[in-house]
Amino acid sequence: MVVESLWPRRSVLCVLGEREVVPNRTYGLLAGLDIGTEKICCAIGGLSYELPGDSAVSAADGDPSVEYDAYAEQQVTHWVIDPSLPLNSAQAAPLLFDEYSASDSSAYAPLQRESIQDTAQTQNSSPWKIELLGFGQHASCGVGPNGITNIDLLEGAVLSAVYAAEETAKKNIKDVYINVPVNLIKTYKVQTSISLSGQNPVQTAHMRKLFSLSKSLQVPPSQHIIHIWPLSYKLDDMDHIADPVGMIGKDLSALCYIVTAPKSYITNVTRCVGKCNLDVAGFVADVYADGLACLADDEAELGATLVNIGGKVTQIACFSHGNLVWMDSAAIGGFHITSDLARILSTTIPQAERMKTLYGGLLESSKKSFEQVPFSQIANKNSPSIEYVPRSLVLDVIKARLDDIFDWIIAVTRKIPANIDKAVLQKVVFTGGSCGFHGLTEFAEQRLGVNVRVSPQNGILGVDRILNSTAISTCSGLLHYAASEYIGEKNDKKPLNFWQKMSLWLNEHL
Q1: Please, are residues 21 and 81 in contact by the beta-carbon 8 Å criterion?
Q2: Which residues are paired to 45 by β-bridges?
Q3: How far is the C-alpha of 239 from the C-alpha of 297, rounded, in Å?
């Protein structure tokens, strides 16, 4: 699908910091690369700005200054947009510490979280829109559950996925955001504190100093920090402060949740992507990207559990107060259903995958349970003959493996740390490529005994017209994250000169 950018006869140019934004025109190119154990996906999105209502804003809507644009030969209306304009119902995103960021100073700035509520159901929808321009995927090669196994094979798979996405979008990308699987992630909770001089209010420099201390504490040198979530602040005797900037006190402390990944994995993925002539814009925790794509703002704030049933890995994460607070994973997924069918029926993996996709489900009916499912056995490959099994057998195999997955979900949620509110378990959202079975919602509610929703990908236009949205929740979450980064960079102040950078460094480290 190719999205064309059309100039209206009377355009509205909005000033966002140093950048002019034309409503209803794709101007920001976003890219996310999901390196999974079953497939590698690349999604290219376009970020555009749309004013509420009709894009052709009349003079009655304000008092704009009108000038004549000789180049475009059309009337152009200039509007000034507040640089701090949040994305819809914005939540605080994690602070990004990334060696591969373009600017060290901007890495400490809090990002704005793109609303993941469906725009069609949101009355006060965000003016920022993400539309899917291109998508490509390729079977995973050279990567396993524990990381890269063959960098040359991985390079070829990444090239194929990126090429397919670029061909669909008719655009070339330069940098991508890449996911990090949960099984490679380690997390730490760090408490840091600093003393404030005098009675001056808390400033951004104090916050940066706090996070600099957090970065250096309790993190092994072999780990690379990809996220830091400030869970809460304390100023003197005042606890549970959301944002202390502007407040006056003597001692400031923060409880931070640090997410890290092995430096060896980060380095090799960066090298592999670099061989594909791409730069790494940043790394994002897999389940956090899923949360951006699948959870509504209220769900992330009040508490929810997200389960991603992928091909070879099932991941679970808990969100509370807008933050990711806990995560885990197990090496079991939809591919195990396929391999079970292949072993039981002595057929090939592609045949078993076809049977699972076309005839799989969790709700049996007396009429369809006796339906005969055709397949060919491996022994008859040279002289293929069609065999038949009742559909009920396929459903039984699927249900047996999903029972194992849900047994693990129940067992692992009982190990959630005591300091996490158990209310996060009262709402469970499922996503992933193996969540498309008919009747999964009813099956999950029966097993878990809580409110369950199988979430489609939200907030990105055009996905439902191309492919199964639950299968690319991570890719779409990476696009949301990239949009937040893009807008955050455009909202930043002008680059600091040498003396300003020196003063900032002294304030942070002295």
Answers
A1: yes
A2: 30, 132
A3: 24
Residue with the larger pLDDT of the pair 244 and 269: 269
Region of 142 please: left (phi>0), alpha (psi -120 to 50) or beta.
Answer: left
Looking at the domain that runs over 296-454, which CATH code has it been given? 3.30.420.40
Integer CA distances (angstroms), 220 to 209, 216, 267, in order: 20, 9, 16
What is residue 7's three-state secondary structure? coil
Instruction: List the helix and strand counts (H, then E) for the chain.
Output: 11, 25
Least-confidence region, from 160-169, 197-206, 247-256, 389-398? 197-206
Chain Cα centroid distance, residue 236: 36
Give the sign of the dihedral formed by CA 289, CA 290, CA 292, CA 298. Answer: negative
Alpha helix ranges (H) inside 360-464? 391-413, 440-448
Q: Find the length of the chain.
A: 510
Which sequence spans correspond to the domains of the chain? 296-454
Local structure of residue 263 (DSSP, 8 states): H
Give the integer Cα–Cα distance in Å for 341 and 356: 8
The continuous run of DSSP H or E covering 455 comes out as none
Residues 443 and 400: their CA atoms lie apart, in Å, by: 12
